[in-house]
Amino acid sequence: MTMGPDNNSEECAPAYPRAQWRLIISGYADGMTNMAIDEAIMRSVTEEKSPPTLRFYAWSPPCVSVGYSQSLAAEIDLARCRQDGVDWVRRPTGGRAILHTDELTYSIVLPQDDPRAFGGVVESYRHLSRGLVSGLTQLQLDVVQANYQDDKPRPSSAVCFDIPSHYEVTVNGRKLVGSAQTRRRGVVLQHGTLPLYGDITRLIDYIQLPSDVERDAMRTKLIARAITLQEALDRRVELDEAIRAMQAGFAEALNLDLLSGELTPEETCWAEELRQERYCQTEWNEAR
Question: Looking at residue 249, which CATH number applies to its domain?
Fold first, then answer.
């Protein structure tokens, strides 16, 4: 595919200083474990026990995640999730609902004073999303960052992939990568999802809606506004190929040496505690 012009071509990407980050490729885990691991890494980076970390992972079984401020009980059909064997979990980050299946998820944890996290949330999205754009370019895909020049709020929706936000990655105006972020004690956690293949509208089956008419309307709208990597490339990309491309893209765009690593024993212990005491708890997941 011929590459088109960069929509940010009028800006010069900053020359970040060379840095070494830890790279963790976790494989598949349930949603509660994945969120607990991301938070455990954030704690470790906050306490300066671990370096900035880029992690790639996937989800099994499928899981609906909701943003920190979203009402899971009001917006998600938990009975349908139980019926279909779909987990649910509240993320520590913001954003809207996502059905995690047939996808690659990335997470980045780094100090807020790192130049790659410069500025506020929107500005840091712009910096970090360059790694996503570069990774997708490795797959010969023409992508851009959605760039809203005004400060008007984007339309509200229960569904993450319904509305592109500032600097999220799009293909021909359709959202390809959805990301969310939180900041605590001087450390940034950003994670996001790249749907590889399958029906992008499957999440609609698990959203609370008043009628089938509205469900069909939302499904039609989502098809027009979101896209999978398979549809964008007209070929199926498996998880390992996507990881290799995104790893190379982040290294190139953010000027990184990515050193393969794993969770420390302390991070593993924290993740187990967080999974049991927070992410598996009804009080955390449903109390909004």
Answer: 3.30.930.10
**Residues 59-77: pLDDT tens digits?**
999 999 999 989 898 999 9
Reported as a single tens digit per residue, the pLDDT across 235-252 is 999 999 999 999 999 999
Nearest Cα neighbor of 153 from 166, 144, 170 is: 166
Which residues form the domain of 189? Answer: 19-286
pLDDT digits (tens, 9 = 90+) for 166-200: 678 999 989 999 999 999 999 999 999 999 999 99
What total of structural domains would you count in the chain? 1
Angle of CA points 164, 140, 14, to nearest 5°: 65
d(Cα 58, Cα 60) in Å, to the nearest integer? 7
Instruction: Let me know if 269 is a catalytic residue.
Output: no
Would you say how long the chain is, in residues? 288
Whether 278 has a pLDDT exceeding 50, the answer reads yes
User: Do residues 44 and 266 make contact, with C-beta atoms less than 8 angstroms apart?
Assistant: yes
Calculate the alpha carbon distances from 91 to 66, 83, 239, 256, 279 in Å. 6, 22, 22, 27, 8
C-alpha radius of gyration, the chain, whole number:
18
Q: Which tokens hold the place of 195?
A: 């749907």
Q: Does residue 150 sit within a domain?
A: yes
Domain presence at residue 98: yes
Q: Which of 12, 63, 160, 269 is catalytic?
A: 160
